[in-house]
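Re: that backbone. C-alpha coordinates:
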Protein backbone atom coordinates (compact mmCIF):
# COMPACT_ATOMS: atom_id res chain seq x y z
CA UNK A 1 0.00 0.00 0.00
CA UNK A 2 1.25 3.45 -0.88
CA UNK A 3 -0.13 6.73 0.53
CA UNK A 4 1.05 10.03 -0.89
CA UNK A 5 -0.15 13.61 -0.72
CA UNK A 6 0.22 16.26 -3.44
CA UNK A 7 1.97 18.38 -0.80
CA UNK A 8 4.51 16.21 1.06
CA UNK A 9 2.55 16.20 4.32
CA UNK A 10 3.09 12.53 5.24
CA UNK A 11 4.02 9.69 2.87
CA UNK A 12 3.81 5.96 3.51
CA UNK A 13 5.18 3.21 1.27
CA UNK A 14 7.36 0.10 1.38
CA UNK A 15 5.59 -0.61 4.67
CA UNK A 16 7.10 2.44 6.36
CA UNK A 17 6.38 6.08 7.08
CA UNK A 18 8.66 8.12 4.80
CA UNK A 19 9.12 11.10 7.11
CA UNK A 20 12.43 12.10 5.52
CA UNK A 21 10.35 13.23 2.50
CA UNK A 22 8.01 15.33 4.64
CA UNK A 23 7.97 19.09 4.09
CA UNK A 24 9.63 20.77 7.07
CA UNK A 25 6.52 22.82 7.91
CA UNK A 26 4.67 19.57 8.75
CA UNK A 27 7.51 17.90 10.64
CA UNK A 28 6.40 16.52 14.06
CA UNK A 29 2.81 17.63 13.40
CA UNK A 30 1.26 14.62 11.61
CA UNK A 31 -0.08 11.25 12.68
CA UNK A 32 -1.09 8.42 10.36
CA UNK A 33 -2.18 5.51 12.58
CA UNK A 34 -0.60 2.19 11.55
CA UNK A 35 -3.66 0.12 12.49
CA UNK A 36 -5.78 1.58 9.67
CA UNK A 37 -3.20 1.52 6.91
CA UNK A 38 -3.63 -2.19 6.11
CA UNK A 39 -7.31 -1.57 5.35
CA UNK A 40 -6.68 1.57 3.29
CA UNK A 41 -7.57 4.03 6.03
CA UNK A 42 -5.45 7.12 5.37
CA UNK A 43 -6.92 9.24 8.17
CA UNK A 44 -4.09 11.70 8.53
CA UNK A 45 -4.19 13.91 11.60
CA UNK A 46 -2.56 17.33 11.53
CA UNK A 47 -1.65 18.78 14.92
CA UNK A 48 -0.88 22.36 15.98
CA UNK A 49 -2.83 23.72 13.00
CA UNK A 50 -2.13 27.28 11.96
CA UNK A 51 -3.41 29.70 9.32
CA UNK A 52 -0.69 28.78 6.82
CA UNK A 53 -2.06 25.19 6.76
CA UNK A 54 -5.31 26.34 5.17
CA UNK A 55 -5.92 25.03 1.65
CA UNK A 56 -6.68 21.99 -0.47
CA UNK A 57 -4.94 18.70 0.26
CA UNK A 58 -5.11 15.78 -2.17
CA UNK A 59 -4.32 12.21 -1.14
CA UNK A 60 -3.44 9.30 -3.44
CA UNK A 61 -3.72 5.71 -2.24
CA UNK A 62 -2.51 2.85 -4.39
CA UNK A 63 -1.86 -0.85 -4.07
CA UNK A 64 0.75 -2.88 -5.93
CA UNK A 65 -1.30 -2.59 -9.13
CA UNK A 66 -0.39 0.65 -10.94
CA UNK A 67 -3.94 1.04 -12.30
CA UNK A 68 -5.45 0.89 -8.81
CA UNK A 69 -5.10 4.46 -7.53
CA UNK A 70 -7.73 6.10 -5.36
CA UNK A 71 -7.78 9.86 -4.99
CA UNK A 72 -9.43 11.97 -2.34
CA UNK A 73 -9.17 15.60 -1.36
CA UNK A 74 -10.07 17.82 1.55
CA UNK A 75 -10.29 21.59 1.90
CA UNK A 76 -8.92 22.75 5.23
CA UNK A 77 -10.44 25.98 6.51
CA UNK A 78 -9.11 27.70 9.61
CA UNK A 79 -11.55 29.59 11.82
CA UNK A 80 -10.94 31.38 15.06
CA UNK A 81 -9.96 34.64 16.58
CA UNK A 82 -6.61 36.21 15.95
CA UNK A 83 -4.55 36.30 19.12
CA UNK A 84 -2.61 39.41 19.98
CA UNK A 85 0.31 39.37 22.35
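Recovered sequence:
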Amino acid sequence: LEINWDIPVHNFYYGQHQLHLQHESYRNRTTLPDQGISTGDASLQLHKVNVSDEGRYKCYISTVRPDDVKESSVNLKIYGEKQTV
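The mean pLDDT is 88. Residues 34-37 form the longest helix (4 residues).
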